[in-house]
């Protein structure tokens, strides 16, 4: 006989979103179970955000010396020690891991079950010989690297974001298939650490982002030594001695290592969703804006959730956002809904590329009278002083000054996006940003300058000049 357990809420998946739901539910007094067959902390802690940003930080340290000459400070060429870089990455993961550990969650009152879960009914799962029922389930099972159907790929060793940090070392030539955020970030990081890198992208680099802003990132990657092959598809993969060979339209490119970075797929195979009467699509579990599945007692969050009509939202911060929505729905019975238009994203290249809200083209298409305003980093005094003038801010605004979307490329773009995220969340107009009193000199002034352009034509126009002229004639 299987052990029978019953809970108020059962969370499947101990990544960012699942951990947030479990911690919140337990601290609010709900009898909470958390089931995880893999590593606690999920993709972000173990093979995603944390190790990749740790590697990027190491690469930035290597690049700092190369930038010194522009300031009159010369450094010797960096000596890259991959053993110590690996230790740095492992150390960062280890420092964060206790926050996501079984011990911490058990101390909060969560029953943690280390096993893979499978539905056996609409409100029951099996895991490690236990039958678990709950009033509400939350599926937070995340995603894995997608593997493209390229002839010969299964005959060669290749890396994904889940394995490249284990293989971190003195690669001779890294080939990257995929020019999205993961491909771009890892390409630049490895190039800065002295490895030859070629990126092959069948479309264009960072295709979801504003082409004018992507141009800035593209130039930076090339300056760091990354070879870009855009608009070219890999036709075949083969072994050539110790090398991997990629065939592109008759040309063959050889490399010592191959990284596949062409997107993500939801981790749904083990769940038996049909047994729980849960509908799915190729992109994930179908949900409504309250993150409910077709089985209204079951929610799906994070990478595995598919809200029709939206693009991919596979970000750690989205999983955390989803967790808050589910807590309000499942425990407080409030009809909280997600708003995909508020989701920001950042590509952590140098310079960074960040955006929130509608793209410039989307805003123009959907809102008559929409105008786009720009502020260039080269016009910002702090950027000049730091010799970080490669960048700009673009803001799409409605005719009434409402903010529709913002895109930033440049040093610290992810940090500069924060006040724009707040403005969109609170429904503020450009006047809120234009009226800010900011310290000088800061990069934040570039945002204020972009917002101020909306009012500049009106402020310095003929009507205002006539008004001032009339007032000046008064005694």
UniProtKB/TrEMBL annotation:
Cofactor(s), by name: FAD
Domain Pyridine nucleotide-disulphide oxidoreductase dimerisation as annotated: residue spans: 343-450
Gene3D superfamilies in UniProt: 3.30.390.30, FAD/NAD(P)-binding domain (3.50.50.60)
Keywords: Disulfide bond, FAD, Flavoprotein, NADP, Oxidoreductase, Redox-active center
Residue ranges of every copy of the FAD/NAD(P)-binding domain listed in the record: 7-319
Domain of life: Bacteria
Signal peptide: none
Pfam families registered for this protein in UniProt: Pyr_redox_2, Pyr_redox_dim
PANTHER family listed in its UniProt record: MERCURIC REDUCTASE (PTHR43014)
Protein family (similarity comment): Belongs to the class-I pyridine nucleotide-disulfide oxidoreductase family.
Full protein name: FAD-dependent oxidoreductase
Organism: Dongia sedimenti
Lineage: Bacteria, Pseudomonadati, Pseudomonadota, Alphaproteobacteria, Rhodospirillales
